[in-house]
Amino acid sequence: MQSVTEASDSPLTERQRDVLDAALGLLVEAGDTLTMTSVARRASCSKETLYKWFGDRDGLLTATVQWQASKVRGIPAKRDGLDLISLTSGLERFASDWLRVLSGKISVALNRIAVSHAGSDKRDLGAIVLENGPFAMARRLMPLLEVGREAGLLAFEDTEEAFRTFFGLVVRDVQIRLLLGDRFELTDVAIDGEARRATQQFFALYGAYTNGAG
Amino acid sequence: MQSVTEASDSPLTERQRDVLDAALGLLVEAGDTLTMTSVARRASCSKETLYKWFGDRDGLLTATVQWQASKVRGIPAKRDGLDLISLTSGLERFASDWLRVLSGKISVALNRIAVSHAGSDKRDLGAIVLENGPFAMARRLMPLLEVGREAGLLAFEDTEEAFRTFFGLVVRDVQIRLLLGDRFELTDVAIDGEARRATQQFFALYGAYTNGAG
DNA sequence: CTTTTGCCGTACCGTACGTTACGGTTCGGT
DNA sequence: ACCGAACCGTAACGTACGGTACGGCAAAAG
Prior knowledge:
Structural class of chain A: mainly alpha
Number of helices of chain A: 11
Oligomer: homodimer
CATH superfamily of the largest domain in chain A: Tetracycline Repressor, domain 2
CATH architecture of the largest domain in chain A: Orthogonal Bundle
Shape of chain A: elongated
C-alpha cells in the first residue's frame, strides 16, 4: 500500500498503472464527468482501493494526468543542427511531432480537464499540463535554436521570444479550435505541410541570411 | 413571459439582461461551479423565474455566453486601409484590441466554460465562443487584408491562410497559458508592443515589397 | 494450518444541487 | 376596487455521486 498523492516520484505498481490507464480512457471518452464508480468498474477494482491509493477524486485525476505526462516525456531532441539542412529538418520534425500530439484525442481531453480545473484552489492540473506542454516544448526547442544561432544560421536576441514566435507559427488557431470542439480534420500530410510552412516562415523571420528582424 | 431558449433572437427584457449580467459576474468569479441558487440570489430573482426564462441550467449558461457575445460583437473594422500607414496602424490596433479582449477576465472565464463543455451533447457553448472569437476575428480582419492586397501592399494567395498566420503571430501561446491558469502579467504597453511586433512580422512574411512567400 | 495483508464487490451514508411547488406580493389593466 | 399575470422568497423533493464500511476471498507470510 502506498499513497501516490504525497511524493511526486512514487514508483507506481503495474496494477496502479493499469488503473490509471483505465481512468485515462474514461477521461478521453467522458471528460471530467467520469465518476469514481465508473473508473472502479472499468479498472475492475474497488472504490476503496482508489481512495486508498489516490486519496480522493482530485488525486486520481492528478495522478492520471501525471501518468500520461510521464509517457509523453523524454523524447529528446537531437542536437545535430549544425548545417542548414539538419536544422531545418529538425524544426520541421519538431513542429510535426508537436502538431500530431496536440491534435490527438488524449491531448485534447487532458487540456480540456486542465483548463476547466484551472483557477480552482485544488491541485493545479493546469500547471502540470503547462509544464508538460508548452514549457516542455520550450525546454526542448530553445537549445536547438541557440545551436542554430551559434552556427550562424539564425539571428535573434531573446531565445524565448523566438521560441514563442515559432510556437505561434506552428500552432496558430489549431489548439483553441480543437479545445472549443471545432470539428477539425488534420491529416498526417496536412500536418507535415503545416510544419514545413511554419519552419519556412520562421526562417523568413529569424534566418540569419535575411533580415535579422528579431 | 418568454423562454429565451428557443429562438436565438429573443429581444431580452432589461430585467433579463440584468439577470444575465449577474450570472456573468458569477461565471467570472466562480467558473461553472456557480449554482442556480447563487445566480438567483445575486440577481435578486427567484429560481422559478430562472427556469421559466431559460429552461434549465444549461440554457442559462448558453444565454449568458450569448449575451456577452452580443456585447462584444459589432465593433466594425474601419476599411480605410489604402496606404501603408493606415493598413499598418489598422492591423496593430486590431491585434492590440484582440489581445486586450483575450486576456480579460471575462474572456478567460467564458473560454474556460466553453472548453469544459465542448464535446458534450448539450447546447454547444464552444460553437458560440468559436463564432464570436476566432471566427469573428477572421470575418473582421480578412476584408482588411484583402483591401491591403488590392492596394498592392500585401501578397498572399489564400486569405484565410494569411489570417491564421496573423492570428498565430498575435496570440502565440498567450491564450493557452491563460486558460491553463498561468499567472501572466500583460500590461497595456506590453500588449501594444506585442501588436507592433506581430504586425511587423506579418509584413515581413506577407508584405508585397519583400518576398511574397505565401 | 493459521494469520495477516491486500483487494474486490457492494451496500450504505451524507450532501450538494438541479428542479419543482407554493404562499405572498407587486403591478398593470379594466 | 378588483382580477390576473408575473415574480419573489423559500421550502421541499429527487437524485447523483463522493466518500466510507464491511464481508469475503486469495495469496503471501509465519
